[in-house]
Each structure stands twice: as C-alpha cells, then as structure tokens.
C-alpha cells in the first residue's frame, strides 16, 4: 500500500465516461481487479477505482461521473496532481482455463488490464446505449449487447467467467455461472480496512469488502449480499 | 502523543500505520459480537463525513482470545475502547481487561451516537468501571450535551483518569437525486473538519473544569490542528477521519506539530498545553479593571 | 416559507432585505436591556463562524415601546424571539407580547450558548409560556443534547405549536498567531455550513417524533439546502449566517427552492415536506422481509 | 446598499500592501470613509474595506494582507470576479475649513479618495518602515514620518483633522485634536447592521460600528472604546 501525489497526464472522453491518465510515480499497478483510492480535489474522502490500463509509467482509470466525487475526478485537468493510494484489495485469480469477461456499463473498467493479463480472451459487454458502448473499444475481442438485451441472455456456458458490473447483473451471472469471479462494489471511505464502511454480507456475516474483496466467488461460501437501498 | 481515534484504524489490517502511533486505540469492543448496522454506512458531506458503522466488533470473548494476542505482537501501546448498554456491561468489560497485561489503558465509550445509548449516567458507568479495574480509565465524551464541563467533572469525580474528547455528533445526509437518507440508518455520526471548533471548545471547557489528561480529537488534519487542541488543554491528540484519506497522517502530523510548536515558541508540543488559557485568564482579570484609555478620556 | 434566523438580520437597519422574507424574526428580546458580550464577538472558521454576541437587545420595555411599532410599519409578519434566565422571565415576556396585535408568533429561545442557560427545563418554560399567551409558540431548541427527539417531544407535550431547529453549538477558534481565543468570551456559538448535517438530523428526528411545524435552519445557503431541510421535515426554512455575506439570499434561495422542488417532482416546496421519511419508512418495512435475492441463492 | 460580482482588473503591489482594482459595475462609490464588504474567494464571511480610489468605472482598494481573508483578497487574479457589497456606513463629513489628513500604516487606505474630495489638502502619514511608506505615494501633498517618530509628535494644531490608523494612534490624535473625525475598525461579519458583531462602546453603550460609524467624532459624546484584546 503506497500513497503518492500523481500528475494528471490526460483526461479523455470515452462515451459518457472519462479515461484518466496519471503518471505512475512509484506506485505498483497491482493485479487486475485490485483498486486504488483516488482523492478528488476538494473532497474529504478518496473514491475507489479499479485500474483500467497500465501502460509503461502510467496508471489509467475509467471513470463514470455519477456523483460529486467522480465528477471532480473526471474534471481533473492535465498538469494538476491527484493523490492515489494502492493497489488495494484482492484481484482476480488468473489461473483459469477458458476465461470469459462479462461486464456491464462502467463495469468494463477493470477489463482492459485484465484482458491483457489473460491474453485477450473473449469478452461480452452490455451497455444501456450505443453512446455508453464506446467504452467497449478499450476491451479486445469484445462482443457488445445493448439494452434491452442482457449479457446473461447471450452468455455461453462452460467458461471461467470474470464479471464486473451492476449488482443485478452480477447476481444473474452468478446464477448461470456459479464459479464466476465477481467484482463487487460498496461505498468505501478508506479502502484499507480502517473504517468498516464497506461492509457486505459474506458467508452470513457483514465483512469488509475492501479486505475480503472486491473480487469474491459465490461458490466459496453460501453468502448473500445485503441489498443496497434502491433509492426511490 | 499521537493516537488514532477509536474505530478509525484496524492495526491488524494496517500494521505499518499503527506502528507510527504512540498508542493504538481499538475499535469499541462490546460484550457480545456485533455485525454493525446495515449498509450504506458512510457518506461524505461538505465539511465532514457521516458513519453508522454501529460498533461492528467481535465481542469481548473473541477479542481477548484472538484479537488482543495478535495486537500484542505489534509491540505498540494498546488502548482498548469498550462500550455497552448498561453499567454492568462496562464493569464486566473492565474486569475482563484488567487481567490482561497487554492492555495499557481502557477508554470508556460513553457517547456513540449509532447505538441506543446507555440509560445509566456517566457517573454510574465510570464508578462501576473504576471499581472493576486498576488500569487507567479514559472517559470518551460527546460534545452533544448542554454542558460538557459538567459531564467532564462528573467523570473526573467518579474516578476517570483522563478524558477523550470528542466523539461524533448526530448528522444526516440526503441522496443528491432521491432526497432519501444516504445512510441505511438515516442519521449517523458526523466527524471530520466541521467538528474542529466543537472539539476545541469541549477540550477547552473540560481542561478548565478538571485539569485531567485529555486526548483531543475531531477533524485534526495537520500539526496546526493538533497544536490548537493542545493549546486548548489536550495532552495528546487522536487522528480519526483524516486516516481514511491519508494513512501517512501519523508521521506527517507529528512532524508538523513539532515544527508548529517551535514556531510558536514552545520547545515541545506539550509545553503548549493550556497556552490558550493563560492568555484568557490574564484577560479576564483585566476586565475587572477599568480600561486604561477610558479613564483617561 | 422563508424566514431569517433570529439575530441574523435587523429589519430596521435593512428593511429591503426583511421585506423579501415571509416573516421577520427579531433578535432575542430579554426582560432587561443587554449590551451583549465584550468584543471581539465574531470569528470565521474553516466551515462556519463563531459568535458571542450575547443577546444584545433593548429589553422588553424599550422593544415594545420603540422597536415593535417601527417594525410594524414595515408591514411584514413578525415573529418575536424571547429569552430569559428563569421560567418566570419567559412567562412575563409572553404575557407582555400577548397584548400586541403586531406579533404573529412567539419564538422561545431555549438554547442560546452565549448566556448562562435557564436552569429550569424546556418543559417548565414551554408550560409557563403556554399559560401566558394564546399566540402560536415555537420552541427553539439546540442540537447539543443527547436526544433531540426527546426534547422536541417534551416541548410538544408542554404545548409548543412548532419548533425552530437548530440554534448554534458551542465552538472555539484560536488566533492564528497567538493561540489565544479569538472571541473575548473564549467560546461562542458555531453556525454556518458545518451545521447542515446536524440541523438535518435534528429536523428529521423532531419531525418523526412530533409532526409539528418546524422552522429548519443551520447553514442554509442555497435552495438545495432549503429543500433538504423540508424533505427532512421542516415546513419553513430560516436563513442565518448566509445573510451576512449575501443580503439578497432570501429572494435567491426562494427562486432556487422553487426550481429544485420542481426538479425533484414536487409542485411546490411544501409538497416535499417529509419526503425523506417516506423513503425511509418503506425501507424499514422492507427490512422485515428477507432480501429477495438472498432467498433465491 | 448594492451587491455585485465585480471583475478583478488588476492587483498591484504597493510596498507590503496590494492595490486591488475592480470594475465598478453598477455600484456607487459612496462618500470618502464609507466602506464595502469584499468576499474573499473560499471564505464564508466578507471583509470590510474602505474605498481607496474611485477612477471612472473602477473601485480601488488598498489591502494589508494580515490574515486569511485579506491574504485571499490580495491574491485575487485579474479576470476573476469578486462579490462586493456597498457602500456602507457613514463617511467623513467634508464641510470643514482647514482639512488635514492624519494616518498610519494601512490607515492611509481611505485617504486617496478623501484627498481628492477635499481638494488635496496636506496629509501627515506615519509608517513602520520605508517599505510600508510606499503607500504614501497614493496620497497627494503627504509628509511622511517613520518609526520611532509618531504622527502626533509632529501634528500641527488648528486643523480640522481626518484620522485613520491603528487604535493607539487614533486615541493619541483625539487627545490632541478633540474635534477630529476618526475612522474606527472592528471585526465585521455583515457591515449592514445584521450581526451585532462590530460592537464598540459609544457614549457608554456597546453599539454597532457599521451603523453608527465607522467615522466617529469624539466630541459628540463622552465615549470610550472597549479595548480590543491585545493578543499575548
Ligand atoms: C472496488 C471498487 C472499484 C470501483 N471501480 C470503479 C471504476 O473503475 N470506475 C468507476 O467509475 N467507478 C468505480 N467504482 C465506483 C465508484 O467508486 C463510485 O461510483 C464512487 O465512489 C461514487 O462517488 P461519488 O462521490 O461520485 O458519488 P456519490 O455522490 O457518493 O454517490 C452517487 C451515487 O453512487 C452511489 N455510490 C456511491 N459510492 C458507491 C460505490 N462505491 N459503489 C457503488 N455505488 C456507489 C451512491 O449511493 C449514489 O447513488 C468502484 C467502486 C469500488 C468499490
Ligand atoms: C470599516 C473598515 C474599513 C477597513 N478598511 C480596510 C482597508 O481599506 N484596507 C485594509 O487592509 N484593511 C481594512 N480594514 C481592516 C480589515 O477589514 C481587516 O484587516 C480584515 O477584516 C482582517 O481579515 P483577515 O481574515 O485577513 O484577518 P483575520 O485572520 O480575521 O485576523 C487577522 C488579525 O486582524 C485582526 N482583525 C480581524 N478583523 C479586523 C478588523 N475588522 N479590524 C481590525 N482588526 C481586525 C484580528 O484580530 C487578527 O489579529 C477595515 C476594517 C473596517 C472595519
Ligand atoms: C468510521 C468511524 C467509526 C468510528 N467508530 C468509533 C468507535 O467504535 N468507538 C468510538 O469511541 N468512536 C468511534 N468513532 C469516533 C472517532 O473515534 C472520533 O471520536 C471522531 O470521528 C472524531 O474525530 P475525527 O473528526 O478526527 O474523525 C468513529 C468514527 C468514524 C468516522
Ligand atoms: C451573529 C448571530 C447572532 C445570533 N443571535 C441569535 C439570537 O439572538 N437568538 C437566537 O435564537 N438565535 C440566534 N442566533 C442563532 C441563529 O438564529 C441560528 O439558529 C444559527 O445561526 C444557525 O443558522 P445558520 O447556520 O444559518 O446561521 C444567532 C446566530 C448568529 C450567527
Ligand atoms: S473501505 Fe474502509 S474498511 Fe473497507
Ligand atoms: S458588522 Fe454586522 S452589525 Fe456591524
């Protein structure tokens, strides 16, 4: 766990998302599926972001500006610095035979780096609109489906599935591929086990996603995720 | 003396951070294991954050059997924070901890806003705890009382050896889009920069009222903030919310504090303890005199 | 409904500002004239400000004889805030105001941190005030209590017609150079943005506990902030600290509030009253069911 | 009392002070001795500043960066906007026969505008150092004295004195010229009578300096100023 103020190299639009390129400094890119805490300028708490790409001397993140913090991250200008902590959490286990990446929306974020590590396996990506699907260009060998088609409608069986996306998608994937490695999300204040804010129910107990996850398999234990409140 | 604030660091998950502290304070331990509250449990606000962790902890049995021995391996001073729902809970917890040499100080959490508060008063709890242990007892108080000096005095008279000030204050945040409470419990404990003036006032009042050792906390982010708490009367300072964004804060704040202290003419940070009071006292005695210029006119 | 917070506007010094309000709330009037505390009385902090004005006011006699008639000329609704040091003070003040048609509402300041607080309880004061006037009574409460819902319920049961939430919380600021308290009284009342989550939590709890009309205040700067207080349960909103920097805030916040309300699907701001609770309640009842997905697994 | 976001035209160093030039907008410059509330970017409360100069379409302030707020005002960059409220308070009474301006340090701030209104009468200005005395160049017909000489050591009698400066200087001036018009200071949160923060003792009572002042004559009533705390 290292922490450093990194220079913003570029912030490029990718559909509705932003690809944020940071100078890597002395930070280690870690394993695919691991994440970093990025401190948005003017905010108290950092925000968790999966590493998207790790070209030489860079760390690259794909950001969906859904709220105050992610908007501030997306608006960072080249030349500014941004404080980054990581890598954090447990990444995907890469020793599988027949990998398939299954993702939805901003869930594609960790896939470019993951795809590279796995030798560019096939990927199946679902998006709300063609505009959002611009992010698919970052993932090699990707097949795209758009709403109302769901990735699980067209997902082949007999693959070792790596999934990342909205919770309903993860549950649907897990029902069809019980061995899938799923990337979960929870609001996080620290990312390194200090705050107990990121609790999800694992094995019948509330546990810290940043310590036990964010990649979790369903098969390991009968577990349920406490449903996050559906706002209105 | 730089500590972490209870519940803001897990020394086992981040031993390198804990080792930079003068003492590590555990998350509050309760008689029985607690999962804590349902998620969402944290929310950022404009000048602070809210949490509704709800004292998630393994319970005293598992804490003594599994957690404490592992913490002891870190070879740092250990403060154990305890919390309960009745006077007897505190007495039992203190009795159990009293037997353990690994424990240097017991902090009585009398003020967590995320669980139903103990019905009995501060006096009852501190008295019962005092009777159950010979270890130093720090009473952790809330600033959400009409008169923190009175509460502090009550804790002192009941036998507290020191005070920890302040805990969080109840707050609420609403979702940007839906106006629903962000936290699943609706309200939670408010911490961070917004607390600074409140913490300073509480430390100032409690120091004047009791003179006890005080661990000051609430929004400390820099050496300057730590020095202000010490000038107000704290003898140590704890880092809470700042650790989430900056796990390096212990070392950084320590360096800044030493430098700030020297800038203000104090050889050590502790030499600044209570400095704000000296100036006030001379003022108050001034007031009894007629202003010099007025009598000239 | 947009009001000013007591002590944050003088309608006679700034009539154009007052006329933009739905009602003007006076600075707290006490039985005898008060000069207030010695200067320095104000200090800015990182996320708010401190004041130690100390209820400077002309006293009830001069208020009734000179101030009230001049306020009445402005032809706006008048709320008179009253404060005292004993139950009898409040009763007397209410009796005196009861005779005056100019006065629409009496606000009982039960919570100013800058004067020695009334010894008697909220219940005694509200009961005595209730017996002394037929005018609507709003009890202004502090958030610096262990359980604001309990205090609100007590006020309601004693006969309060509404609540004003929240008053300032005790805070301290130290001089950049000297570490001496900036305010001559050392501590003062903390107001402004830092109070927002605290005010929201207090309004939320008091609305749930009493259902009474509530004037929400604490750090409101924008229509969004006002809407949040209303969603938490306020029926009106008062502007305090923001007026010092922006005397145009009443008109601006009103416009923003109307727009924000429509954005969130409410025809009027008041239609949003309590909206945050509806969502919470449905959640709470959800919790009794097993999460659907869990039972599937 | 008008309020407007004004454009910063320039911020020029004058010794240790800053001359801040703002586009006037629709604000009235008011009378010499009146003041404006300037909102420092990033701060909750505005800060009171005397109008220093009123060239066509401009409002110009002279700022001593003594604390957080004044530092933020002094650091404003051309092109930014700054919210300004005013004019506020009561200015100097200009119907006098033999005006003399007596000032010290940043107390010279209102004199350029005042001097212009009075037809450039003589001025006597005291400064701590020659560096500070750079501000004297803004005041026509000024004689400068430096520490340890005090303006009151060399102040001629039989003038109608307009004074502005640190409190000890004002008291010393008033002792030698009881009819002097003195510009007082107090911390102010609002500047328009709303907060009661600016109380000073006038005629034996604590009254609002922003409403009754900031220009006050001593002769009008026997009054004493509550001594502001001398820090340490
Ligand atoms: C391990 C991990 C990796 C992540 N990787 C990425 C990534 O690569 N790219 C990316 O754009 N996002 C990623 N996220 C999600 C991202 O962290 C959140 O969207 C962000 O923290 C929201 O902050 P905000 O201030 O913008 O939103 P807020 O204003 O705090 O909230 C906006 C909305 O998002 C919800 N929300 C807040 N935090 C989270 C969260 N952590 N997870 C899910 N919903 C949340 C809120 O409930 C609210 O509805 C990741 C999250 C985790 C836990
Ligand atoms: C009517 C009026 C006109 C003024 N005109 C000018 C002017 O033209 N140019 C100029 O540079 N300054 C002027 N001042 C003073 C200026 O307003 C203060 O220096 C400023 O408010 C300090 O803010 P700060 O945040 O920088 O300092 P802070 O950090 O708040 O305080 C720094 C130091 O200044 C003291 N201080 C704070 N406010 C005041 C105040 N209002 N008066 C005296 N001391 C204070 C504090 O006690 C502290 O010692 C005027 C003040 C008044 C009341
Ligand atoms: C996430 C979180 C968890 C906390 N848990 C506890 C706890 O278990 N026991 C306790 O006494 N205080 C707890 N606190 C309060 C802190 O110890 C501290 O008193 C408070 O946060 C103020 O300090 P800060 O502003 O530096 O965070 C917690 C605070 C936070 C933010
Ligand atoms: C300068 C000042 C003076 C105040 N005077 C009074 C008062 O006389 N009576 C009262 O009930 N509240 C008084 N208050 C509290 C406000 O009415 C309000 O409750 C508080 O400031 C929170 O609102 P805000 O954050 O919008 O300022 C005062 C507040 C300030 C800042
Ligand atoms: S994010 Fe803090 S414990 Fe997981
Ligand atoms: S500055 Fe607010 S009343 Fe004078």
Give structural notes.
The complex is a heterotetramer, with two copies of chain A (232 residues) and two copies of chain B (297 residues). By secondary structure, chain A is an alpha/beta fold. Chain A has two domains: 2-88, Elongation Factor Tu (Ef-tu), domain 3; 99-225, Nucleotide-binding domain of ferredoxin-NADP reductase (FNR) module (Rossmann fold, 3-Layer(aba) Sandwich). Chain A has helices at 68-74, 111-117, 151-154, 167-176, 209-212, and strands at 2-14, 17-23, 35-38, 47-50, 58-63, 81-88, 99-104, 123-127, 142-146, 160-164, 181-183, 199-202, 205-208, 215-217. In chain A, a hairpin with an 8-residue loop joins strand 3 (35-38) and strand 4. Chain B is α/β, with parallel strands linked by helices. Chain B has one domain (2-288): TIM Barrel (Alpha-Beta Barrel), CATH 3.20.20. Chain B contains eleven helices and twelve strands. The model of chain B is unreliable at 284-297 (pLDDT under 50). Chains in contact: A-B, A-C, B-C, B-D, C-D. The interface between B and C is large, with 50 and 50 residues. Residues 5-8, 27-28, 51, 53, 55, 81, 109, 112, 140, 167-168, 189, 191-192, 195, 217-220, 239-242 of chain B line the site of one flavin mononucleotide.
Decide which structural class fits the backbone of chain A. Answer: alpha/beta
Overall pLDDT of chain B: 91
The poorly predicted ranges of chain B are: 284-297
Radius of gyration of chain A: 17 Å
Bound small-molecule species? flavin-adenine dinucleotide, flavin mononucleotide, FE2/S2 (inorganic) cluster
Number of domains of chain A: 2
Overall SS class of chain B: alpha/beta
- H-E string of chain A: EEEEEHEEHEEHEHEEEHE
| Major pleated sheet of chain B | 8 strands, parallel
Tell me the β content of chain B. 15-25%
The CATH fourth-level homologous superfamily of chain B: Aldolase class I
Q: What is the C-level CATH assignment of chain B?
A: Alpha Beta
User: What is the count of β-strands of chain A?
Assistant: 14
- Provide the helix percentage of chain A: 10-25%
């Amino acid at each position: 766990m290292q922490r450093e103020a990194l220079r913003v190299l570029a912030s490029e639009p990718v559909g509705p998302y932003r690809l944020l390129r940071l100078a890597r400094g002395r930070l280690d890119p870690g394993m695919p599926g691991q994440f970093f805490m990025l401190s948005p300028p003017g905010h108290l708490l950092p925000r968790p972001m999966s590493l998207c790409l790790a070209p030489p001397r860079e760390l690259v993140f794909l950001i969906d500006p859904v709220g105050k913090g992610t908007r501030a991250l997306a608006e960072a200008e080249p030349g500014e610095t941004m404080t980054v902590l990581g890598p954090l959490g447990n990444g995907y286990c890469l020793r599988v035979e027949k990998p398939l990446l299954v993702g939805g929306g901003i869930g594609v974020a960790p896939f470019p780096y993951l795809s590279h590590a796995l030798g560019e396996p096939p990927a199946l990506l679902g998006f709300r609109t063609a505009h959002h699907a611009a992010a698919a260009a970052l993932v090699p060998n990707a097949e795209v489906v758009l709403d109302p088609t769901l990735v699980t409608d067209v997902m082949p069986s007999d693959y070792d599935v790596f999934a990342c996306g909205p919770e309903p998608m993860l549950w649907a994937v897990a029902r069809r591929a019980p061995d899938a490695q799923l990337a979960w999300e929870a609001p996080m204040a620290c990312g390194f086990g200090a705050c107990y804010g990121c609790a999800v129910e694992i094995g019948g107990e509330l546990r810290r996603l940043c310590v036990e996850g964010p990649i979790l398999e369903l098969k390991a234990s009968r577990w349920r995720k406490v449903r996050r409140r559906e706002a209105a | 003396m730089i500590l972490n604030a209870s519940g803001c660091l897990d020394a086992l998950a981040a031993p390198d951070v804990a080792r930079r502290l003068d003492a590590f304070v555990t998350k509050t331990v309760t008689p029985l294991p607690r999962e804590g509250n349902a998620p969402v449990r944290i929310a950022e606000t404009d000048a602070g954050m809210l949490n509704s962790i709800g004292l998630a902890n393994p319970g005293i049995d598992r804490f003594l059997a599994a957690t404490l021995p592992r913490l002891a391996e870190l070879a740092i001073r250990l403060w154990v924070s305890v919390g309960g729902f009745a006077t007897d809970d505190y007495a039992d917890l203190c009795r159990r901890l009293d037997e353990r040499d690994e424990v240097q100080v017991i902090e009585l959490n009398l003020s967590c806003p995320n669980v139903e508060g103990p019905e009995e008063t501060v006096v009852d709890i501190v008295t019962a705890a005092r009777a159950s242990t010979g270890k130093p007892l720090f009473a952790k108080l809330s600033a959400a009382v009409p008169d923190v000096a009175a509460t502090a005095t009550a804790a002192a008279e009941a036998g507290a050896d020191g005070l920890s000030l302040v805990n969080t204050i109840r707050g609420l945040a609403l979702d940007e889009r839906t106006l629903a409470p962000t936290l699943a419990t609706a309200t939670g404990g408010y911490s961070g920069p917004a607390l600074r003036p409140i913490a300073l006032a509480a430390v100032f009042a409690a120091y004047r009222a009791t003179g006890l050792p005080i661990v000051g906390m609430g929004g400390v982010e820099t050496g300057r903030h730590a020095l202000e708490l010490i000038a107000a009367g704290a003898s140590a300072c704890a880092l809470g919310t700042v650790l989430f964004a900056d796990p390096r804060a212990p070392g950084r704040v320590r360096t800044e504090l030493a430098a700030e202290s020297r800038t203000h003419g104090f050889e050590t940070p502790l030499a600044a303890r209570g400095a704000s009071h000296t100036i006030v006292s001379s003022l108050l005695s001034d007031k009894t005199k007629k202003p010099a210029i007025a009598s000239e006119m």
